[in-house]
Amino acid sequence: MSSNYYSATDPFSKFQTMEDQFGSTFSWMVAASIISVVVGTAAIVAIVFAIINCLNKVGSAIPTYAQVATSESSVTSAQYASKLSADTSTHNIEVTVPPAFPVITNSQMRTVTIEKFLSDIARERPIRFSPEQVAGFTNNYSTVLGSGGFGVVYIGEFPNGVKVAVKVLNRISDKRVEEQFMAEVSTIGRTNHVNLVRLYGFCFDDTLRALIYEYLENGSLDMFLFGGEHAVEWEKLQEIAIGTAKGIAYLHEECQQRIIHYDIKPGNILLDPDLTPKVADFGLAKLCNRDKTHVTMTGLRGTPGYAAPELWKPYPVTHKCDVYSFGMLLFEIMGRRRNHDPDLSETRQWLPRWTWEMFNKGELADLMAICEIAEEDRVKAERMSMVALWCVQSSPEARPLMSTVVKMLEGGIEIVPPPNPFQYLESSSPDLAAFGGSTTGSDSSSTVQSSQPCYSTARKTTFEIEIANSS
């Protein structure tokens, strides 16, 4: 009894028991700490992996040549330009771009809207270049290719030898320049078609607004039609007409958002070394949703002589205005002359009307002979003239779709005789009903009444062509 009591109250035994308890507690704390570190590390690794995965997905959505470099955080202009490389057969550009657009200062607040616009299209095909790079591409703007109201076009060259055309926009009116700049980048920058000029990139800076396009050494179609220096076989002109129609059809019917060009004319059709046509100059172009039947206009667009009547009057505007302009272009391709020539006799001065008069009298073959079209090409030339007459119908609804125009030119569908597209010019007042407008007064009413059957027939016949095309 006394021995057990002594043992229970021995101080050494109590100390030993406390030490054992402390050791057990410490071991659990160490184990818990290790488990916490392992779990925390695993969580961090999972988060990093998720971030990397997201970045990879974002990067894959950006064209290869527009992806941001992660291995070099700082790249000088010279190094940046030297990294530009391309496949000369396809002209695909691979380039290392700065990780972000320049930060705007208080003095640049005026351009906040345009900068936001640039941010929105940062993942599209065009690349943003710096003013120093543009100066390097053009050898300090040493060779002028052309100039106009928009600005000056210079010949340039990428470090890999690919030639480019650099359009430097004027800064007389900042608002107009920004509108033209946004129109070109947001439209042609979203397209990829053999019959559309390619936009490689752009520069938007306080000191420079520029657009960098592929260089087409043969210039524009008007040089071949009216210059007298280049002789082109009619068969090649037929191919140019079909290629141009395919490019416009792509803009109207195959893009995610319909693109209306508004300025189709020979000067805006560029030719590559093989004389393949490429629609260019999208400074007046506009994107529109497919569910919208009409477009709201802000100011006049187009070139007199090619612009559809509804562009110059307060009538609804649709993509059919490009069809009208293309029709006017077809007349000039067919005749290899300008539509209006004041040096000719009065009946021959305006080629579109003269073509209608000859067609109406059954004398198209005589017109082909006057235009010096060879006998073997006259069937296709007559077909082209009939397509042109359909395209320039006064009523937009009577004009065919551009995809239908392509098939008509290629001979894929039969062309029914078109109605008189210029009847509204022969009346005492314009045919407002043909454009969806209204008229008042007895004279206007009688004019609309007399012309209405013609346009009703035109709309019905066009509908029949579309049905035949789709069947």
UniProtKB/TrEMBL annotation:
Keyword check for Kinase:
yes
Return the PROSITE patterns for the record.
PROTEIN_KINASE_ATP, PROTEIN_KINASE_DOM, PROTEIN_KINASE_ST
What compartments host this protein?
Membrane
Upper classification of the organism: Eukaryota, Viridiplantae, Streptophyta, Embryophyta, Tracheophyta
Q: How does it sit in the membrane?
A: Single-pass type I membrane protein
Which residue ranges run through the membrane?
26-52
List of residues binding ATP: 167
Instruction: Give a single Pfam family match.
Output: PK_Tyr_Ser-Thr
Where the protein is mainly located, per its record? membrane
Q: Name one GO cellular component term.
A: membrane
Q: Which organism is it from?
A: Nelumbo nucifera
Question: Looking at the record, which segments are called Disordered?
Answer: 435-456
Return the protein name: Protein kinase domain-containing protein
Please report the stretch or stretches of sequence annotated as the Protein kinase domain.
139-423
Keywords for this protein: ATP-binding, Glycoprotein, Kinase, Membrane, Nucleotide-binding, Serine/threonine-protein kinase, Signal, Transferase, Transmembrane, Transmembrane helix
**One Gene Ontology MF term:** protein serine/threonine kinase activity
Give the family per the record: Belongs to the protein kinase superfamily.
Q: Which SUPFAM superfamilies match?
A: Protein kinase-like (PK-like)
